[in-house]
Design a protein that fits this description.
about 150 residues, 5 helices, about 0% strand, mainly alpha
Length: about 150
Amino acid sequence: MSYCTSDDLVKRLGDAGILYVADDDADNVASSDEREAAIDEAIRAAGAEIDGSLLPHVNLPIAGTNDWLRQRAIDLASEHLAERRGSHPPASLTNAAQRSRGWLEEVRLGTRRVPGLSYPSDRFDRETRHSSLPRVGNPTLPRERAR
């Protein structure tokens, strides 16, 4: 599932950053096909990582958008883009992606919840158990009714 858009990644990396990571033929021009292929690959990879963290707790795909997940996807996809062709991403991208991976791991383990996301278990606010005593042994009933 796509949690972010190509515009989100262009905003994060800038046009020069996208040119640097998407120019596969090294002609200093990133064609729209090169840009789309690189960005789509990174978005799919980020989406797969996020889906892997959500799958134990949430029914996929998620309806609508979630800003917290979008930010995690931007962090992860930016790092994926910067790592293309064996490049070493800047520390700022690596740190953001590692922080997001840590939070997603907490989501997977159930120690963190995604803000604004409805979990299937939320429908049951509390568990109630109903038990009854046999009428004969119920001390709250009047004596004459217990017979």
